[in-house]
Design goal:
The chain is α/β, with parallel strands linked by helices. It is built from 18 helices and 34 strands. The protein folds into six domains: about 110 residues, ATPase, nucleotide binding domain (Nucleotidyltransferase, domain 5, 2-Layer Sandwich), CATH 3.30.420.40; about 140 residues, Dna Topoisomerase Vi A Subunit, Chain: A, domain 2 (3-Layer(aba) Sandwich), CATH 3.40.1360; about 140 residues, ATPase, nucleotide binding domain (Nucleotidyltransferase, domain 5, 2-Layer Sandwich); about 80 residues, no CATH class; about 110 residues, 2-Layer Sandwich (Dna Ligase, domain 1), CATH 3.30.1490; about 60 residues, no CATH class. Strand 21, helix 14 and strand 22 form a beta-alpha-beta unit. Helix 9 packs across helix 15 and helix 13 packs across helix 14. The mean pLDDT is about 90.
């Protein structure tokens, strides 16, 4: 019996996507996410794809999983009862934050409350300096009193974060060793293991977040493993982490904070894989699902990464209004713009969309599950972008009348407009929200989007990609096969990887070659050992980066280290690399200032699967089609008579001119009046400007 099959599973806010892949086999389904027991939707999806492929669960050798469960627990603040133990005098670091203001001139600004209230935060006497030298030993006698207080409060999980523990973790290790003996049933998270980087607020908050969701995630992952085993699926289970690689079930249970943004990371990997197939060096990844839209810049077939990102932004998704998580992550912008995002009229009589979403319970009004407010999916249905029957691979039949009523009551009655006009308003607002997020993200990274190709995937992205391209001035858009379940496919393309980071301050004026060699060797070994726990027999590559800045600056930029800089580190080579990176980002260097390194990084990865190269196929003929469909085109503000085809009708080189709707199992691609579409040899659809149209 063949065991060459792999399963990709992505739990989203609205749908759970399940993909089965193997020799000559590709099957996928979308199941409404079951919030109370997320594993139930996975089991339902497993049963369906196995039946479709005539494959038994015990033939699946590997499952790759990404989930929003960790993210949702942080956003909804439904984690475990958690305590935080820190250095005496630093109890309020996670509440004081960095004292920056995301709205500079708002006199009534309300900062988000910390994850843990003050009475859940404890201190103990100890102190390290920034170089890891002990200034005040840990008072072992005070541990007994601390233990009594923690036991009396009945905590499930404890986070430990001491000042400068990234430089010397010995005090954290001593405390956890003592507490774990006295509190054997409590989960522990230690800052020197979770996020060994400088900046107390980000490090402490990340450790607290890890502790807060650790019992929940351990329980879920254990239930999932048991449920799959009971179904006969005994293959290995791996989790997608936020940095775009895979980690073992055990490591995911110990460091669940690395699962935050795991689903979107799979989407970025999927887009990068397609960029490699078409040899594209500049790609804008556009992933729009039921709850959120994710936008990521991919250069040279590699998604951009960062060290810190924010969860649960509380004020219009403004930077600084959320909860910072200090771990390696694929850098993307995520906004509350999905098929389930709800439209409403604000106090200024303006249409607003999101961030609140209908999710899967009850879902948009057209789902017929009790939803009354108009969602983006209701607007898309009203405008002819969706067919009422067979939505989400046949899982749901949509109710057009329910959408019409929701649009009329939620938007139309307040603004005196028809349901069609209300739907037009919702889609234009949500498309402009996404376009603006893409513009800001590009400007922050010094990029011109007119030079980019869009790759659109996710259940809702193909519905909106054409209009988004019009708004952003992007000429070409690729919509791959399986676009509706793109993140789940991305899981199956991801390498096993882990990025180890370490804070060791070093000025280039006092560059220590031996220390740098030892430091890089240590973090490379840590990263490689982590990957080997997942896949001991595969070859591993290591990439190195240093995070550098001019002396006196507050933040660093990443600088790639080439092999010669790792083998024989020299201050001059680091300075040249830093100035090149700085000039690329800011168009100039700063004269008269010395440079310094604050954080070092080593990323160990197995070799990613190389896609077969695909040559762009031009339009060789229009597909024969007599089926017409009225599709609303926002650019002209009216319904236009277009054609409707299925994706299966398109052979390589065949195409269609907009307006058009291309139907497939999990999604629909809308071709605006300004665009045309042609099928490529691998089944990808290339949407571009109509011939003869500038």
């Amino acid at each position: 019996m063949s065991r060459d099959y792999r399963l990709g599973v992505d739990i989203g806010g609205t749908f759970t996507d399940v993909v089965l892949e193997g020799p000559g086999i590709f099957e996928s389904v979308k199941i409404l996410t079951t919030y109370s027991a997320p594993e139930d939707a996975i089991l339902t999806g497993l049963d369906q794809v196995c039946k479709q492929a005539n494959v038994a669960p015990d033939q699946i050798r590997q499952m790759i999983h990404g989930t929003t469960l960790a993210t949702n627990a942080l956003i909804e603040r439904e984690g475990a009862k958690t305590a935080f133990v820190t250095t005496e005098g630093f109890r309020d670091v996670i509440e004081m934050r960095t004292e920056s203001r995301f709205e500079q001139y708002d006199l009534n600004l309300q900062l988000p409350a910390p994850l843990l209230a003050r009475n859940h935060r404890y201190t103990i006497s100890e102190r390290m300096d920034a170089n890891g030298n002990i200034l005040k030993p840990l008072e072992l006698d005070s541990i007994d009193e601390l233990t009594r207080n923690l036991r009396a409060a009945g905590y499930e999980s404890i986070a430990v974060g001491f000042l400068h523990a990234y430089a010397n973790p010995v005090h954290e290790q001593q405390l956890v060793k003592a507490l774990s003996v006295k509190l054997p049933n409590v989960h522990f998270s230690v800052s020197s293991e979770v996020s060994p980087q400088m900046r107390e607020y980000e490090r402490f908050n990340t450790t607290v977040a890890n502790a807060y969701i650790k019992p929940l995630m351990k329980s879920y992952l254990s239930r999932l493993a048991d449920s799959l085993s009971a179904r006969g699926m005994t293959g290995d289970i791996f989790l997608m982490h936020s940095g775009g690689g895979l980690m073992s079930l055990t490591d995911a249970a110990d460091f669940p904070v690395r699962l935050v943004e795991s689903g979107p990371a799979g989407g970025a990997v999927f887009a990068a894989h397609l960029a490699g197939a078409f040899a594209l060096d500049k790609v804008l990844s556009f992933d729009m699902g039921g709850t959120t839209a994710k936008i990521c810049l991919i250069k040279n077939q590699t998604p951009k990464t960062a060290r810190v990102f924010e969860v649960a932004r509380s004020s219009g998704f403004k930077k600084g209004s959320g909860m910072p998580i200090s771990i390696p992550v694929i850098d993307m912008v995520e906004i509350g713009a999905g098929g389930g995002s709800l439209g409403h009229v604000d106090r200024l009589s303006q249409i607003r969309v999101g961030p609140k979403s209908a999710g899967s319970e009850p879902g948009p009004a057209c789902y017929g599950r009790g939803g009354k407010s108009p969602a983006v999916t209701d607007a898309d249905l009203m405008l002819g972008k969706l067919k009422p029957l067979g939505f989400a691979g046949g899982q749901i039949d949509l109710d057009l009348e329910a959408s019409k009523n929701a649009l009329a009551s939620g938007i139309g009655s307040a603004l005196g407009m028809s349901s069609v006009d209300a739907a037009h308003g919702i889609v234009e607002v949500v498309d402009e929200n996404m376009a603006n997020a893409a513009r800001v993200h590009a400007v922050e990274n010094g990029e011109d989007l007119s030079e980019y190709t869009m790759i659109a995937f996710g259940g809702a992205a193909p519905l909106h990609a054409g209009r988004l391209c019009e708004k952003l001035g992007i000429k070409d858009c690729l919509v791959p096969q399986g676009a509706g379940v793109g993140s789940a496919i991305g899981f199956l393309r991801a390498p096993f990887s882990f990025e180890a980071t370490r804070t060791t301050y070093m000025s280039l004026n006092n560059f220590d070659t031996q220390l740098v060699q030892r430091l890089l060797r240590d973090i490379a070994s840590e990263a490689e050992n982590f990957v080997k726990t997942c896949t001991p027999n595969e070859s591993i590559d290591v990439e190195y980066r240093a995070f550098m800045r001019y002396e006196g600056q507050g933040w660093e930029i990443p600088v790639e280290l080439d092999p010669s800089m790792v083998a024989a580190p020299q201050a001059h080579a680091f300075l040249i690399a830093f100035e090149e990176a700085y000039s690329k980002l800011f168009s100039r260097t700063v004269q008269g200032l010395s440079a310094e390194i604050t954080i070092w990084s080593a990323k160990a990865s197995t070799k990613a699967h190389k896609p077969a190269l695909v040559s762009i196929t031009g339009m060789q003929g229009l597909v024969d089609n007599n089926k017409s469909r009225e599709i609303f085109d926002p650019a002209v503000g009216a319904f236009l008579n277009g054609c409707e085809i299925s994706r299966a009708q398109l052979s390589p080189g065949q195409g269609v001119r907009g307006p058009a709707a291309v139907n497939e199992v999990e999604t629909t691609l809308i071709v605006p009046n300004s665009k045309q579409l042609v099928a490529q040899s691998d089944g990808t659809l290339l949407m571009s400007e109509k011939e003869g149209q500038s």
